[in-house]
Amino acid sequence: MRKKILLAEDDPDDQELFFEFLSDRTDIDLLPPVENGEVLLERLRQASGNIDLPDAIILDQNMPKCNGLQTLQILKSSGYHAHIPVMIYSTYIDSSLVKLGLSSGAVLVMDKPSDTEGYHSLIDELLKVLD
Fold this sequence. Notes:
Blueprint: E1 3-8, H1 12-22, E2 28-30, H2 37-46, E3 56-60, H3 68-77, E4 86-90, H4 95-103, E5 108-111, H5 116-130
Parallel strand pairs: 1-2, 1-3, 3-4, 4-5
């Protein structure tokens, strides 16, 4: 069954790359992206039942208003959305971000890819933890 992936990413170029590099995948459905954590949380609040919820969320760490870790912590404290697997990705990954992300409930914390192969590997890793 195809997995619905929701991306929270503030950079329009990164959103475009994400969709361009992954549009040929037959194992995922890419939901319309959101530009920050606040918009993500609002979209989830408006979802009517589990059919509208994503199977996984990918959060950019460096977003305005509500960054990836802040959004993750809010999601995991919400009884309704806490079950949704969340990945954090960022251009700048260090051991502190990995440790804090995983301890806050992220299933993965990974470097932001820069090419088609990297994006496919990122999705492959995410799908492994979803199965």
